[in-house]
Amino acid sequence: MSQFMVAVLGGDGIGPEVTAEAARVLETALRSAGHRIALTEALVGQAAIAAEGAAISDATMKLCQRSDAILFGAVGGAGVGNPNAKAQPEHALFRLRKELALFANLRPVRALPALLGASTLKREVVRGVDLLVVRELTGGLYFGKPSEIRETAHGMEAVDTMTYTEAEIERIVRYAFELARGRRKNVTSVDKANVLSCSRLWRRVTDRVAEEYSDVALRHLLVDSCAMALIRSPREFDVIVTENMFGDILTDEASMLAGSMGMLPSASLGTQRTQHGQRGLYEPIHGTAPDITGQSKANPLAAILSAALLARYSLGLPAVADAIERAVLEVVSAGYRTLDIATAKGRVVSTREMGEQVLGRL
Ligand code: IPM
Ligand code: MG
């Protein structure tokens, strides 16, 4: 019997708290389905800078490259660091994304019936929302050079660079069309083609790819208009495909359709295959939440749902993924709530207890 290898990188802030629950859930779900799994923990982010001198060490990178998948928490601190500093906690994520070629970031957003009341939006607006954002993850402003703050004769100036190649656009758009075929066959490509050259190329390439998918409907939407439509009529979306930074911003917005950032998982995938599936990194979309760190107040469900995606995409175990997702649904339907999704009738529980409740239903 083969053994699955998963690297567990909790990171900073609430990262380790939520990741611990996700790791326990993953381990239990796999064991009860008769599989063997080895989980290996390592430092990342601020914690790694302090102990190992880099946001992610070469040894940890090797561990990740050897593993079938990476269960990731969150990195970063309370403030915005010096962007010219050598070691920034976020570099760990960028290095992992780039060196493992994880160009496709999948962020599914579902409004669970039991959580309609947790959203700041009206029930009738969020009811039935089921969309998937496919965010490009290794290009655009996050990786373009130069990116720096510098001195000039006229004072300081800053520069960031957005670049996209045809090939980068094509592979992510294709990914989105493929996923749409397994869903409601509807793709919205989001750009800012009225301003940006990158977006104009994005639109051209997307139209070309779309010709190969005559069974899938495509529309283009400007990012500002998309931000509005997401809260006006979110049910109109099936698959959204967009560049790196637009995807970052729109998914924080879209998380409120599901009630809280604490409910949104993500999968980062690329082209590397393992014995069992695609090598991938799985993380909740929320950050380190320094304001509630160490208080067992964080919602572990986004991390636990990320573990479900891990089982589905990297371990090739859709039944295990379904079991975890079902357990989460049951816990939420039974009224268990962390503070971020607290509703009038729900019972507020700690991070640990929420994890226990999910475990108990596996
Ligand atoms: C995310 C996060 C990261 C990003 C940060 C921590 C660098 O916001 O994964 O959405 O911007 O990609
Ligand atoms: Mg983000």
The average pLDDT value, as a whole number, equals: 96
The termini sit apart by: 22 Å
Percentage of residues in DSSP E strands: 15-25%
Judged by helices, strands and strand pairing, the structural class is alpha/beta
Helicity range: 25-40%
**List of distinct ligands in this structure:** 3-isopropylmalic acid, magnesium ion
Order of strands, widest sheet: 2-1-3-12-11-4-5-10-8-9
Number of strands: 14
Write down the secondary-structure element order. Answer: EHEHHEHEHEEEHEHEHEHEEHHEEH
Radius of gyration: 20 Å
Shape: globular
Keywords:
two-stranded antiparallel sheet, alpha/beta, 12 helices, 38% helix, binds 3-isopropylmalic acid, binds magnesium ion, 362 residues
In short:
Helix content is 38%, strand content 24%. The protein is built from 12 helices and 14 strands. The chain has helices at residues 15-32, 46-52, 58-66, 90-99, 123-126, 166-181, 197-210, 223-232, 244-255, 301-313, 318-333, 351-360; strands spanning 3-11, 36-41, 69-74, 104-110, 130-136, 144-152, 155-161, 186-191, 217-222, 239-242, 265-273, 278-284, 336-337, 347-348.
Describe the model.
The strands form three sheets. The chain has a ten-stranded mixed beta sheet, with helices on both faces. It is globular, with a radius of gyration of 20 Å. It is an alpha/beta fold and 362 residues long. Strand 6 and strand 7 form a beta hairpin. It is built from twelve helices and 14 strands. The protein has helices at 15-32, 46-52, 58-66, 90-99, 123-126, 166-181, 197-210, 223-232, 244-255, 301-313, 318-333, 351-360; strands spanning 3-11, 36-41, 69-74, 104-110, 130-136, 144-152, 155-161, 186-191, 217-222, 239-242, 265-273, 278-284, 336-337, 347-348. Helix content is 38%, strand content 24%. The site of magnesium ion (MG) has 3 residues, from helix 9. Residues 76, 90, 93, 248, 285, 287 line the site of 3-isopropylmalic acid.
